[in-house]
Target: Peptidyl-tRNA hydrolase
Amino acid sequence: MTTPVWLVAGLGNPGPAYAGHRHNVGYLVTTELASRMGEGFRSHKSGRADVVEGRLGSPGLPGPRVVLARPRCYMNESGGPVKALATFYKVEPAHVVAIHDELDIPFGTLRVKLGGGDNGHNGLRSLRSSFGTGDFHRVRVGIGRPTGRQDVSDFVLSDFSATERKDLAFEVARAADAVESLVLEGLEKTQQTFNS
Model:
C-alpha cells in the first residue's frame, strides 16, 4: 500500500509588500518547513503556486511524501490553486493542511484541527468553496484581535508588533513542528501536544 501524499498549503498574499503581515504567517511556516527539507520553492507548472516536494522527518526515518505550497494569488482566491495542486498530486482533502492566521486565538497560541467552518477567514472560505468540503486539516496560528478601534482587515494586513516579532521565529518554528507532528504522528497526538 502506498502512503498518501500530504499537501501543506501556507496561506498568505504574494509579493514583498505583504511579506511581514500577520495574514502571511502561513507563508512563513512553509518557508520554515522548506528549510527543514533542504529545498527552495519553485514554480509549479500550473503557474498558480510555488511548491517544494520532499519528505519531513529525520534523515534516518523519513516520513511520507509532502508537497509544500504557496498559492501565487491573493488570500481570497487561494482555493483554486490549492485544489489544482490536490488534483495534480492526487491528494484527498483529508490529507490537505492549510496553515493560516487566526484572529480568535491569542498570539503565541496554536490550534490544530480537522474540518470546521471558515470563521470569516477568506482563505478558508475559498478552500471550502473549491474543494466542496471543509474536511481538511488546519494549523491555526494565533494572531489575536486588534485592540481599540483598529479595523480587522487593517490589522491582519499589518506587520507583527515589535514585541511579537521577538517571539515570531519561535512561533513559526512551533507551527512547523505541529505540521511535522500531524504528518508523522497523526491528529490526536498533535492536538495533545500543541493545542495548549
